[in-house]
Batch of 2 targets.
Target 1
Amino acid sequence: MLRTVKYIIGAVVAVAAFTAVLAIMMSVTERVPNGTYCGSYAGGLVVGNMTIRAVSSTFDMFLTGLGLQLACKNELFVYDMKTHEATVIGAKDPNNCIGSILTKNNLTLRVFFDPHADIVTLDLGLAKIECKRCPALSYFGSAL
C-alpha cells in the first residue's frame, strides 16, 4: 500500500512539473510571421502578397504595379524575436531575385512584424507597405 501511494505521489509530481513547463513554454512562445499576407500601396497602384514559411525561414513575394513585376520564391530570411525585424538574406545581392530589383532601383528593404496585429510591414525607404493576413480566397501569386 505504501508503495502504491509513492507511485501516485510521483505521478502527481510528474504531471504537475510537465504542466508547469508547458505553461511556461506557452507564455514565452510568441507569434512569428507565418502564412500569406496581402498589401497595397498608393490606393492599389502597387499590390502584392507574400507567403511566409516560419519553419523553413523562407518566403515567396509577388508584387505588381508602376512597371514593377516581382515574383520571387524561396527567399531566405532571419527573424529576430526581440526587435520583430526580419532580415532578407539576399536583399543586397544583385544576383538574387529581390536583391536585383532593390539594387537596380536604389531601394532598401526592412521587414517588420507586429505579432499582436499579425501585420508584416515592408519598408522600402520611399514607401511602407502594410501586409495583413490575406482572406482565404485572395491569394493571387500564381496569377502573376
Target 2
Amino acid sequence: MKPLLLITMLVALYSQPGHAEQAKATNPAGIEVIGKGEVIVKPDTFIFTITISERAATANDAKGVVDKKSKEILSLADKLYIADKDIESSQLRIRPIFAQENHRPQPKSDNESTKPQQRPALIEVSRHITFTLLNLNHYDQLLEKGVQLGVSSVSRLRYEVSRADFFYQQALDAAIEDARMKAQRIAKHAKVSLGAVSYLKESENFAPRRVYGMTADAPNYQSLPAEQQISAQVRMIFEIN
C-alpha cells in the first residue's frame, strides 16, 4: 500500500500547479474594469428611394408615363449637381393586373377549368430611383417634385455617417482611456500600484449604429437630422505591482 500511496501523492503534487496555472489563465489576477467611450457626430449622407408606377391598358402606355416622370425627377437631380454615381435607377418592373385581384376569388367549377386563360385587365409598370445625397436641402426639393408628379411612394429617409469607422476609432480610444482612469482610481483607493495591461477585449455590441429619420409626407416637410452617437466598449485587466 505504501508505493501506491506515494504515487498518488506525487500525482497530486505535480497536478496542482497545472490547475493553478489554468485557473490563473482563465481568471487572470489584477484589476478588471469596463471602459466606455462615445463620439457625437452629425450624419452627412442621406439616402431614400422614390417609386414611380403607373397602370394602363398596355405596357407601352404605362411605360411612357413612368419614363416621363423618371426623366423629370432625374432632370431636377442633374440641375442640383447630384453625381450619377449617387443615383441608382432600377430596371422597369412589369406586372399584369387581373380583374379578380380586386375581388374575393371564387372556387372554380369543372366547366371553368376548360375556359381559356383570362387576359390581364391592366398592366402595371414601376421603377425605383435611389438617391444618395450629401446635401440635405436636395431631399426636400426632390420630395416636392415627386409629390407634384404624383409618385407612388417615397421611402423612409435614412441618415448615415460616411466616416463612421474613423469616429468609431475615436470612441474606442476614449473607451480605453476611460478603463485606464477607472483602474487608476481603484488602485489608488486599494493602495496598490497599477501595472501593465494583461487582458483587453473589445465589445462587439458597440459597433457603429445608424440612425433613421422620419418619413416625409408633404412637400413643406423640413428634414432635420438628429445627432448620432457612435459608441465603443472594452474590457481590460491591469496587473497589480
